[in-house]
Amino acid sequence: MLESLVTSKTRIKLLLKFFSHANSGYLRSLAKEFDESTNSVRVELNRLTDAGLLVSEDEGKTKVYRANHFHPFFDEITGMVSKFLGLDDLLEKVVKRMGNVEKALIVGDYAKGIDSGTIQMILIGKDLDREYLDFLINKTYEKISRNVEVEILQTDPGNLNGILVYG
Question: pTM score, two decimals?
């Protein structure tokens, strides 16, 4: 979906990086992370900065970029990126159908804004439906071509302190 709206693969990578989480980056690290030339990354950083979607500041001799949280389209772009990654649907389905989910957390590369192809989650709750979770993991892979790794931490109903027990 995002590829049909934004034709530059480098621009898509930058949007995913900066609008999936509160990330920052500088030219050379982004070029290395994306396995792209510094020139192609520089061109797209300049375009996004000129459009006001990114802001930059100098930290010593390095120019650091981050998403402009004050841009009028910040929330919309963040929402589009989240939907592109499939995280909205995944979290919504998990919370609705898994049982008593107290918290669902995205961790790992996606939490850092890196599209590594694997979404890592931690689910905290009681009596979670592991069969449905396995079904969701397979469906997510079919739908968005991303592996999902889930660690379940179950709250111990017999412990008043709420200490977590690995499930």
Answer: 0.58
Backbone φ/ψ region at 52: left (φ over 0), alpha (ψ -120 to 50), beta: left
Joined together, the tokens standing for residue 108 give 């790992």
Beta bridge partners of 154: 125, 165
Q: How many residues does the chain have?
A: 167
d(CA 137, CA 155): 22
Walking along the chain (167 residues) 10 residues at a time, the average pLDDT comes out as 65 86 87 92 95 95 94 89 71 75 82 75 84 80 75 70 47
By the 10 Å C-beta count (0-12 exposed, 13-18 middle, 19+ buried), 82 is classed as: middle
- In the numeric block, the tokens 């909205």 are attached to 88
d(CA 110, CA 47): 24
| Two tokens, residue 96 | 């609705």
Domains annotated on the chain, with CATH: 2-76 (1.10.10.10), 86-166 (3.30.300)
Contact 65, 55 (CB under 8 A): yes
H helix or E strand, kind and range, residue 137 = helix 130-144
